[in-house]
Design goal:
The structure is a single chain. The protein is an alpha+beta fold. 40% of the residues lie in helices and 25% in strands. It is built from eight helices and six strands. A hairpin with a 4-residue loop joins β3 and β4.
Length: 218
């Protein structure tokens, strides 16, 4: 990819909504040979040739759900760390199970590698020959850099993950109820253990490295 932010929506659609041949060509074009894939249901690890496993995962994904409705809600690119964050929502269906569908949201974290890599910055004291660009020493600077996917990590909230195997959202409903109960328990715990907060505020001082024992000793 020359521009990850503008190109990644098309790459994702090719991976999830295209024919088998196009799907495989997309994996081979945009992923490095040692790319890794991590998902709540599976992972590949990273080794030479692991890209083939990623193609198999996408192929099985498409076999299970030949029709996938997918929308990209937002994209953010951390250029310094070469990390792409893509917010996605999709409707996953399994063709062999009538009336089954799982509307889920996720954030896909894509670690990229740049080729050619950025050249080391010359020191201010180094002399620069204006003819260097003509004799080839700065040849890489004239090339358009390309970005390849080194790893893909699909992140789901627990309630989104449950939707994959929750008939008619029953488990998701129970999880939603538990989350509200857990919030109530947090409120109760914060109220009952208010002395701990008082000590932290008045003796320790916030996120200090000083332990309660050290604070008591002064």
């Amino acid at each position: 990819m020359e521009n990850p932010v503008s190109e990644i929506p098309r790459v994702i659609r090719l991976l999830t909504q295209s024919t088998p041949a196009t799907q495989r060509a997309t994996v081979e074009k945009y992923f490095t040979p040692s790319a890794s894939f991590t998902h709540p249901f599976c992972r590949t690890g990273s080794f030479e040739g692991s890209r083939w496993l990623i193609w198999c995962i996408y192929r099985w994904y498409k076999i299970m759900s030949p029709r996938i409705d997918l929308e990209i809600d937002g994209i953010a690119f951390d250029e310094k760390k070469l990390t792409l964050y893509v917010n996605i929502h999709q409707i996953f269906r399994i063709w062999i199970i009538p009336f089954y569908k799982a509307p889920v949201s996720l954030v896909t974290v894509l670690k990229l590698v740049r080729y050619p890599p950025l050249p080391p910055q010359p020191s201010y004291s180094a002399s620069i020959n204006p003819n260097d660009s003509q004799n080839g020493s700065l040849a890489t600077s004239s090339k358009t850099p390309l970005f390849f996917i080194q790893s893909q990590n699909d992140l789901y909230q627990v309630n989104e993950f449950f939707r994959f195997f929750s008939a008619f959202g029953v488990l998701s409903g129970f999880l939603l109820l538990w989350q509200f109960v857990a919030t109530a328990l947090c409120v109760l715990g914060a109220g009952l253990l208010w002395p701990v907060s008082w000590v932290e505020q008045n003796v320790i001082g916030g996120n200090s490295q000083k332990s309660i024992g050290e604070a008591a000793r002064g």
